[in-house]
Amino acid sequence: MKAYLTWLKQYAKKYDVAIHAWVLMTNHVHLLCTPSTATAISQMMQSLGRMYVLYFNRRYQRSGTLWEGRFKSCLIESEAYFMQVCRYIELNPVRANMVSDPADYSWSSYQCSALGKRSSLQSEHELYVRLGHSQTERQQAYCALFNNDIEGKQLNDIRQATHKGLALGSEQFKQEIETLTGLRVTESIRGRREGWRKHID
User: Fold this and answer.
1) Which of 8, 50, 118, 121 has its CB surrounded by the most CB atoms within 10 Å?
2) 179 phi/psi in degrees, rounded to 5
3) CA 144, CA 142: separation in Å to the nearest integer?
4) CA distance 178 to 107
5) Are 86 and 21 within 8 A, CB to CB?
6) How far apart are CA 128 and CA 112, in angstroms?
7) CA 100 from centre of chain
8) What predicted TM-score, i.e. pTM, was given to this entire model?
9) CA distance 27 to 35
C-alpha cells in the first residue's frame, strides 16, 4: 500500500489533481479529488494503474492485468455532498468490519483530517477549512461528523452515482452538468421514450 500511495502522490502532482480524501482497501481504492483539467483524473489513474501493475507483477512473479476494467467515478456538488462523501470513503473499513473506529485504520485520510497526521498527499478542501478557525477546531468538527454512520438513502445515492457514473447533487447541479458537457449524468427510467430522464433527489 505504501507503493500505491507513493505513486498516487507522484501522479497527482504531475497531472495537478488535488486529493482530499482516500482509503486503500484490500481489493479496491476510493478517492475524492479535484482535477485541474477535464482529463487530469483519467491521466493520473491510467499512469498509476500501469505503474502499480508492473510493481505488483514483479513482486509476486505473476503476469497479466490486475484491475477489473476502467475506474468508476462521479461528479459531486461540493456544498451538498463533500462531507458526506468524505464520511463514505473513510468509513469503508468500519463497514467492512476491519476496524470499529476509522481512527484505527492507517490507510485512509481520516487520521489526517480528524487527528492532525501530516501527509503531503492531502490537499485541504475549502469546505474543510471552513469547519473551524484553527486546525484543532477543524479536527474536532470533522470528528463530530463521524458520530453516526452514513446509511440508507445517502449511502445508496453515493454508491449508485459512483457505479453508474451519475452526478451527485441537486437537480439544478445535474441539469447544469448535462448542459455544459452534453453527457447524461442522471438515470433514465426503463421503458420510457428516448431522452426521458428520472432525476435522483
Assistant:
1) 8
2) -65, -45
3) 5
4) 35
5) yes
6) 12
7) 21
8) 0.84
9) 24
Contact yes or no for 187/200 (Cβ under 8 A): yes
For 98-133, write each residue's pLDDT tens digit: 999 999 999 999 999 999 999 999 999 999 999 999
How far apart are the C-alpha atoms of 194 and 110, rounded to whole Å?
43
Q: What is the distance of C-alpha 64 from the center of its chain?
A: 26
Residue 7 vs residues 18, 57, 79, 183: alpha-carbon distances, Å: 14, 16, 29, 31
Residue 108 DSSP one-character state: B
Residue-wise pLDDT tens digits, 148-189: 888 888 899 999 999 888 889 888 988 888 888 777 788 765
**Structure-block grid coordinates of residue 173:** 447541479
C-alpha cell at 52: 502499480
Amino acid at 80: A
Q: Which residue has the cell 484505527?
A: 104
